[in-house]
């Protein structure tokens, strides 16, 4: 400060102190994120070069004093302010030739929203940084680039139903009295971001065309490049793996699967142990005792009942065991014959990994899935279909419901709004993949970023967002999860009673086997 202060009068020095400990910067220094700056420049060209070099390291919303060390004409000063304005640097006072303080007020009516520079020289107020940012923009334009995003953004040029994101932006524009101008011929940046994992194309478009806002969708943990700044989220959506409805399983294949392998093993082991024990008690051959135990197991008539106490007790206990086993098997069999069986539910990533389900998701989701165990991640990637990146992001739900042979990553909120009977779908609800946010992205240094965030908070607290989402979902095309082929009523066929014939065949085969053994 001492270096600069030696050239200033006491009154002007008082003005400098209004800058609140500014950072003094020459054209050879990188400014950094300070609140206020004093830029000492030798020429307009050097100023322009410095701004180009520092544009991503510069707090453009701070109070900035530019000191030119030689005298410039009013046209030169207007050119300087226009250059600064193109970098979103608006809160500026130029100290020209160490004699005059010059500034301008972009949002006053005579300046036409920054399109015309009317200079103000040596104003009465010492703090010329006041009133540079108006509370209301007075109808000044804010340009917005957009892409179609399901029912969030249908078309901003549709008055009745533009989409809930457009409704939010229009409301924010009304709060700050801005003329929201939606652009045409926008780059297809949203689809490209899904495939590349970044918003390079949006950054390039906003920088080249000097666009103020862009609507972006990204995960909460995503940080945009230094060229962009983002508001607080307008909307949040949790995304999960969503799978097709569980399919029915043929009951005929479960006749022997009613008991697990362990239960069958215990049953046969019990039969053998009982036969051996009965041989020991009765002193008859093992073949006879095995046949006798099979008779008991099949609930055949037993002519020889033991008379001694211990054999009788053992006999009664075995009969009790056989009765319980028979009752349990009968109840399970009744359940199989009367109730449809479905594939097991999948609620966790571990269960999904163990299933045979195929998956479709963009390669950009890899970084979210990598948070799981490496083995789980490897299996999930092996389940991913090879054409996943060619999936149309806006027809993803339609594509999913048309085929119903793979799982996708979707937000539960969106699927419930666009699918009539979404309750039929399976959601891996125990493991969230990530949270998607819809935000407004601005070029670095946008003047009204903080005002936008204040408006977003007001809109969220008002409850209007829920209303807009509901209104947008009412008018969109609804999808339906198709019924499975065996859900619809059908005439009774031989296939429907196949299980009964199988049981009859099993009984006849057993009877024939016993008859042969008796002979």
Summarize the topology.
Elements: H1 2-5, H2 10-17, E1 23-26, E2 36-41, H3 44-54, E3 63-68, H4 74-86, E4 92-96, E5 100-103, E6 120-121, E7 141-145, H5 164-175, E8 179-182, H6 189-196, H7 200-209, E9 213-219, E10 228-230, E11 235-243, E12 248-249, H8 261-282, H9 286-297, H10 309-338, E13 341-342, H11 349-354, E14 359-360, H12 366-369, H13 374-383, H14 396-403, E15 407-411, H15 412-418, E16 426-427, E17 434-443, H16 449-462, H17 464-474, H18 498-518
Parallel strand pairs: 1-2, 2-3, 3-4, 7-8, 7-9, 14-15
Antiparallel strand pairs: 4-5, 5-6, 9-17, 10-17, 11-15, 11-16, 11-17, 12-13
GO cellular component, one term: plasma membrane
InterPro entries: Insect_Ionotropic_Sensory_Rcpt, Iontro_rcpt_C
GO molecular function: ligand-gated monoatomic ion channel activity
Report what the structure shows.
Residues 1-14 have low confidence and may be disordered. This protein is an alpha/beta fold and 519 residues long. The protein is rod-shaped. It is built from 18 helices and 17 strands. Among the domains are: 1-121, no CATH class; 254-340. It has helices at 2-5, 10-17, 44-54, 74-86, 164-175, 189-196, 200-209, 261-282, 286-297, 309-338, 349-354, 366-369, 374-383, 396-403, 412-418, 449-462, 464-474, 498-518; strands at 23-26, 36-41, 63-68, 92-96, 100-103, 120-121, 141-145, 179-182, 213-219, 228-230, 235-243, 248-249, 341-342, 359-360, 407-411, 426-427, 434-443. Helix 3 (44-54) packs parallel to helix 4 (74-86), helix 5 (164-175) packs across helix 16 (449-462) and helix 5 packs antiparallel against helix 17 (464-474). Strands 7, 8, 9, 10, 11, 14, 15, 16 and 17 form a 9-stranded mixed sheet that branches. Strands 1-2-3-4-5-6 form a 6-stranded mixed sheet, covered by helices on one side. It has a two-stranded antiparallel sheet with strand order 12-13.
């Amino acid at each position: 400060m001492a270096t600069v202060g030696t050239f200033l009068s006491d009154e002007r020095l008082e003005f400098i102190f209004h800058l609140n400990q500014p950072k003094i910067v020459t054209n050879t220094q990188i400014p950094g994120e300070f609140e206020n700056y004093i830029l000492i420049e030798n020429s307009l060209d050097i100023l322009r070069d410095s701004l180009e070099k520092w544009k991503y390291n510069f707090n453009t919303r701070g109070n900035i004093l530019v000191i030119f060390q030689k005298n410039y004409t009013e046209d030169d000063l207007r050119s300087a302010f226009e250059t600064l304005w193109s970098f979103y640097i608006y809160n500026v006072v130029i100290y020209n030739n160490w004699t005059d303080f010059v500034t301008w007020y972009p949002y006053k009516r005579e300046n036409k929203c920054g399109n015309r520079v009317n200079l103000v020289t040596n104003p009465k107020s010492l703090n010329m940084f006041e009133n540079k940012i108006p509370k209301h923009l007075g109808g000044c334009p804010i340009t917005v680039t957009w892409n179609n995003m399901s029912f969030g953004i249908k078309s901003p040029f549709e008055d009745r139903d533009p989409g809930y994101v457009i409704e939010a932006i229009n409301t924010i524009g009304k709060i700050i009295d801005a003329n929201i101008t939606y652009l045409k011929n926008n780059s297809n940046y949203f689809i490209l971001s899904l495939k590349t994992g970044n918003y390079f194309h949006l950054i390039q478009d906003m920088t080249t065309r000097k666009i103020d806002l862009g609507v972006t969708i990204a995960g909460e943990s995503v940080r945009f490049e230094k060229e962009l700044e983002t508001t607080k989220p307008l909307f949040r959506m949790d995304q999960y793996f969503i799978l097709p409805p569980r399919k029915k399983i043929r009951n005929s294949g479960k006749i022997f699967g009613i008991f697990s392998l362990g239960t069958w093993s215990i049953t046969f082991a019990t039969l053998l142990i009982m036969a051996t024990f009965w041989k020991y008690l009765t002193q008859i051959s093992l073949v006879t005792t095995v046949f006798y135990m099979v008779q008991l197991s099949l609930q055949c008539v037993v002519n020889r009942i033991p008379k001694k106490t211990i054999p009788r007790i053992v006999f009664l206990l075995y009969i009790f065991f056989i009765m319980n086993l028979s009752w349990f098997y009968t109840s399970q069999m009744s359940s199989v014959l009367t109730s449809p069986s479905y594939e097991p539910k999948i609620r966790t990533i571990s269960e999904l990994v163990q299933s045979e389900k195929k998956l479709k998701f963009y390669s950009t989701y890899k970084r979210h899935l990598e948070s799981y165990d490496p083995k789980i991640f490897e299996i999930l990637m092996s389940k991913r279909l090879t054409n996943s990146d060619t999936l149309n992001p806006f027809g993803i739900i339609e594509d999913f419901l048309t085929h119903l042979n793979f799982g996708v990553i979707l937000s539960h909120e969106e699927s419930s709004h666009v699918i009539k009977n979404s309750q039929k779908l399976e959601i891996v609800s125990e493991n969230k993949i990530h949270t998607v946010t819809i935000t407004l992205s601005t070029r670095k240094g946008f003047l009204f970023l903080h005002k936008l965030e204040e408006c977003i908070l007001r809109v969220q607290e008002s409850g209007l967002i829920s209303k807009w989402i509901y209104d947008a979902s009412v008018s969109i095309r609804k999808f339906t999860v198709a019924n499975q082929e065996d859900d619809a009523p059908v005439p009774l066929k031989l296939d429907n009673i196949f299980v009964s014939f199988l049981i009859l065949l099993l009984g006849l085969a057993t009877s024939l086997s016993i008859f042969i053994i008796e002979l």
